[in-house]
Write a structure and sequence with these properties.
- Two copies of one chain form a homodimer.
- Helix content of chain A is 43%, strand content 12%.
- By secondary structure, chain A is an alpha/beta fold.
- Chain A folds into two domains: 17-70 and 377-491, Aspartate Aminotransferase, domain 1, CATH 3.90.1150; 113-361, 3-Layer(aba) Sandwich (Aspartate Aminotransferase, domain 2), CATH 3.40.640.10.
- In chain A, strand 6 (266-270), helix 11 (285-295) and strand 7 (305-310) form a beta-alpha-beta unit.
- The longest helix of chain A is centred in the C-terminal third of the chain and has 28 residues, at 371-398.
- The two termini of chain A are 39 Å apart.
- The interface between A and B is large, with 99 and 99 residues.
Amino acid sequence: MSSTAQLRALNIDNINPHVRSAQYAVRGELAIRSEEYRVKLQKTQPPTPPDESLPFDSVISANIGNPQQLDQKPITFFRQVASLVEYPPLLEKEDVLINHLGYKPDVIERARRLLAGVKSVGAYSQSHGAPIIRQSVARFIEERDGYPADFNNVYLSAGASSGVNTLMHIICASPETGVLVPIPQYPLYTATLSVLNARCVPYYLEENKHWGTDLASIRTAYEKAKSEGTEVRAIVVINPGNPTGASLSEADMRSLVDFAAQEKLVLLADEVYQTNVFVGAFHSFKKVLRDMQKANPGKYDNLELASLHSISKGMVGECGHRGGYFELVGFDKQVQEQIYKFISIQLCPPVVGQCMVDCMVNPPKPGEPSHELYKQEYDGIFNGLEKRATALYDAFKQMEGVHCENPQGAMYLFPTITLPKRAVEQAHKEGRSPDEFYCLRMLDATGVCVVPGSGFGQKEGTLHFRTTFLAPGTDWVSRITEFHKKFMNEFRD
Amino acid sequence: MSSTAQLRALNIDNINPHVRSAQYAVRGELAIRSEEYRVKLQKTQPPTPPDESLPFDSVISANIGNPQQLDQKPITFFRQVASLVEYPPLLEKEDVLINHLGYKPDVIERARRLLAGVKSVGAYSQSHGAPIIRQSVARFIEERDGYPADFNNVYLSAGASSGVNTLMHIICASPETGVLVPIPQYPLYTATLSVLNARCVPYYLEENKHWGTDLASIRTAYEKAKSEGTEVRAIVVINPGNPTGASLSEADMRSLVDFAAQEKLVLLADEVYQTNVFVGAFHSFKKVLRDMQKANPGKYDNLELASLHSISKGMVGECGHRGGYFELVGFDKQVQEQIYKFISIQLCPPVVGQCMVDCMVNPPKPGEPSHELYKQEYDGIFNGLEKRATALYDAFKQMEGVHCENPQGAMYLFPTITLPKRAVEQAHKEGRSPDEFYCLRMLDATGVCVVPGSGFGQKEGTLHFRTTFLAPGTDWVSRITEFHKKFMNEFRD
């Protein structure tokens, strides 16, 4: 504690202990250090000579799924629409837009429609989002799943993180409330549970089954928690997986629905990577649930499903706009009223982000003027991601002591690493977990920032790291392989 | 409870009780009913004949400070910059922008500068905001106050509400934590304390002293709370006031600083209405504190001040963009690290909103190409607000049993109403507080939606309502006066 801490109202020992205990490694020590390196490198741009103290000339932020920081270009249609809703007087110059600036009529039409619905992107909307955009989302869900969706059950949010925060606030009623969370997981879940002083009930994903779920181990975790007095109320499923990148099989999903219905658990489906699927097809939990309801009338009618989506991921990658939504299925009306009240305290999600949600769920269709460019950009991003994922995967296959599942989706690979005993000892000497030690060494040597597996949780005795495959080029992949070789040689037993 | 509630994981009786107990009247029952009326009126636009069941033809949302929903035009400079950062390829067509679309060179320059700093508005920024924009904020504070500001102590946020939420999360450590909150207050404070299961320690503002603070009554509230086992840690001050519209005198502010320093309380200064001042000048708490520190070396060095600002209010009115910031003064470094970690869980504030913050704190200067229009728009909004405030105030002066302080600032008037005994009895019969009863009657009769004083807190035995003075025209003011006349006649003893 600093020497003046006692003189103040707040110090590290008396602030909210639940905030203090929360961990969020994605933006933790490594990320902060990587930012320091970035600043150092920027400061030493010519005319000042390059900083000789750093053995690399650029920082690669592979720690966070932030596509547009890594040169992914925004989709033109989305941003043209955004420019018009931001400055509506442009709509009075249709000829200039079309003849001089290359805007297509469907861009102009979309902006007009959105402005008719929101009036101004500078005005607060309803707390769960503008009706016109919630209606677009409902239509998208209907088309995706082949089942009806009611826009009154759609809640727009400032990214999926904000939606998770809302739902967890409602669910967590006491320090005994527990939520089943997959391990490894995106640390938003554990951090939020920590802040809410509720219990994380971990269930492990099966690395040797392509990071799928295993119902027996979920049930064991559930029963153990119950026997310890935890009131388990919800189960989180991230599909496609973060950090694992894996897609769940329909069979796994059906087991999960069945389990949640049987044990009266809210099924919280984080489906933000639903378009980032390289292997097989994405199945939404809503569709799987509706199929099961159809086949078993009455049996699953009361299952509460919350499905989350986001504009930050997919080919959209509009993280900075903070947009997303969740759909509630089977929730009690009075509970939904409390959800509305809770979100109203923070007024509304950013309205331009809401407009981006509209573009995501209702992009230009075949035959419409902007479709060709949209498709070209979309496919280009998709193929680029797949290509880089494969390049990275191929590199991992060559690395000693590294094993990685083949890339299936999302934006991540999550290889296992087996480190020499001496490296593990050195890590412990420095008061770090071995994977953290490895990742810090990698950052210091290469400028590549990845996140240690311990930031997401991993089975006792295993080590991993998560890397995005967003960074352009392949230079940084070879930085990793060279570092790894040197690291292994340095600590070889 | 609905009949199926027991079949689900979540029902009204088992969700988070702290969320359930939170109250947020600004978007409560009245607001929801007014939205229903709005939908009803929209549905009955021609060719369908007007809905004869409603005695008004439009809904006036005077319940919430949402300028652009009520026809306040956005400031051109802000939105032109936003259009360019949304669609940067426009910057390659400088001649079209300037010659065909009326953009000025300083708009283009600002967009370029911002993009150089944030790279893409679709990329996550640092969790406390892009450095380039935090630096702008720091310079603005320096110029406003005449004292240095460090951009490392500036945290951009998704509106001031999000900043308050962050700070309250850090401050509230246990159910015994208490925060002094002015009554009447903006209900964000009580709602947030409720969700956090901490204690609101109310102190009353003095209506007969232009809603100023009274240190004796603050001290009484503080001592009473302490004697009841409350660990009071912070004091909220809203200046200019919401819902009162009042500006604090410098003497009041000095007393508050002195009191907070003496009792080791965080001073949480909600200064979002700092440019909405009609009477006198705005003084920031930062300046008052620095003046006092200069005059009394050492005495106030450890006071923790958090000052909040927003793009939603002032002449900017960009509520839907969700932008704001808070500056921390005198906070412990380790505590600031925890604040950073907490906000990083939600990744970052909307980046376009951050760009709007930049425009707000660094608007076109005299001599710059966009300045003339900016000043004209700014002054137009300011004068319009003052004019409407005065018109409303004049109307209130004529109304039986209504007393109102003269408009000083913010966006609100908060008149006292004295209702006939029979109206109070009728309200109680309907299970409502008398001011809520009055406001509901007003909405049903006129379509004008205001918020009952009970939504903000008021001294026992007094009744008020809060109205914004944002709605254009004066028709709605006469709707209120006519309604009031009829209401008083209906319930006259």
